[in-house]
Design brief:
CATH superfamily: Phosphatidylinositol (PI) phosphodiesterase
Strand content: 15-25%
Bound molecules: 2-acetamido-2-deoxy-beta-D-glucopyranose
Number of helices: 14
CATH class: Alpha Beta
Distance between the termini: 39 Å
CATH architecture: Alpha-Beta Barrel
Mean pLDDT: 89
Number of strands: 11
Largest sheet: 9 strands, mixed
Low-confidence stretches: 1-22
Length: 360
Amino acid sequence: MVVVVAAAMASGAAARPLVGGGGRDDRAPLQTSRPFNIAHRGSNGELPEETAAAYARAIDEGADFIEADVEATKDGHLVCFHDTTLDDVTDVADHPEFAGRRRTLEVQWANVTGYFIIDFTLAELKTLRAKQRWDFRDKSHDGVSPIITFEEFIDIALNAKRVVGIYPEMKNPVFMNKHVKWADGKKYEDRFIATLKKYGYGGKYLTPAWRAKPVFIQSFAPTSLIRAAELTDSPLVFLVDDVTARTEDTNQSYDEVTSGEHLDHMGRHNVVGIGPWKDTVVPPTRGNLLATPTDLVAMAHARGMQVTFRNENEFLHFNFRQDPYAEYDYWINDVGVDGLFTDFPASLRRFQDWTARNRD
Ligand SMILES: *[C@@H]1O[C@H](CO)[C@@H](O)[C@H](O)[C@H]1NC(C)=O
Ligand SMILES: *[C@@H]1O[C@H](CO)[C@@H](O)[C@H](O)[C@H]1NC(C)=O
């Protein structure tokens, strides 16, 4: 408990962000010699997702990038949060003052009921505390950490002792633009990119400007990525859902939008990578064994795109004999992905350090 509070204070106390200072950056650079270790919602296997504590822990554990989902509040602030509703990972249900906020809205072709983040102001959200999503994970930090803003998230990365990249997602952009209005007529995507620019993010992939403040902007929505490409030269990553799922903005299946033609189109708009879910690349059999890999990785690599494997399903296929290192080995060395989203960045870091040592 003490460690978490201290970590949260250390990162929350980022009084002087390294923004536009023009000073020399003596910090250790981002490594680019091996697949990126991307801390999925922070070290969320250990601490409640998308909190300052989870991000600080991920940085301590050696993550190259910290990943976040960015959504908008009722009053137009951008915050780090994954779901459209607050129910599963906050204590909102314990706040009688908000009991009347529960309602049903359509989100991505389905009706969802809960406490929607777009019905709360930032000040109201700050009174809530985060909790672990899964019962089988450590819940001893529930009720401790608040939701953080996108700017607080950026501050954590910029104040790390080495260069740590950010991997923010434009989350549910259709829903955000439908329910949140900004006074100046701007859209969610405009706000998102403007925030990154405010903190000096920009520059094409692997340029010196990018290496100084590494960022990948990710989205499941093709039109949001095209809009982002009009506003920034930062590299973009197209997230790929289950092949039969439909995009929220173009209502095409992910099978359709990952055709060679579509990937070429995206590539012309600064999309340097794709982020498929693991079962999209190697579909499992009904017996939880791996079937034949699809050609998605080869298609992306043929276009010079990175492939980031999204390990969102924490259950291992039986081929890996309950050994997560066997799974890392398969994805890095057999499939050949360029980065891994992981709920446990410490585990991936140790795998990478140990296998690098063994090669010497
Ligand atoms: C959501 O509920 C409304 C009201 O009952 C209904 O009209 C609409 O078709 C539903 N949408 C979906 C996607 O099920
Ligand atoms: C989305 O596409 C599906 C399949 O083509 C179609 O049945 C559905 O009506 C479409 N929905 C909208 C809102 O266009």
